[in-house]
Amino acid sequence: MAIRPILIHPDPRLKTVCDPVPDITDELRTLADDMLLTMYDAPGIGLAAPQIGVLSRLIVMDCVKEEGAEPQPTVMFNPEVIAASDQTSVYEEGCLSIPEQYAEVTRPKLVTVRWMDRDGKAREQEFDGLWATCVQHEIDHLDGKLFIDYLKPLKRQMITRKMQKLKREKARGKA
Length: 175
Fold this sequence. Notes:
alpha+beta, Peptide Deformylase, five-stranded antiparallel β-sheet
């Protein structure tokens, strides 16, 4: 298992619609394990394959944040929202590909998601609260959409400029 580098916005791979995973291989299971390790190390509660430069429909998440609570690492291949509530909730979202930038995003409060687990078994589950927000945020990544795409253009441009500056500083070895 290895921690993978996380792409920083703007990067064209983060705006790419990812390909479905045809079948679950050992290589993909290893990728999922690497993604969980990378997500926990960051630290974050979700990570999508395009964030580490892999354009496949794979996400990982674990929204358990309580001290001492049992982690619930979740691996989803080809996840899709099959039902969403009319009721919405607002969360202040962040993203590992857009470090230290946060904004309120309104999304459906409840979503039902269908996916394949790491054994290739079809799964379906309803998510609520932070889990619902996280799974929608990560599935958006698979469709080339970032949380800042929900913001007004001026705010989105401001965040993008900050990320461009951060990338320049990192390239010069300052960050």
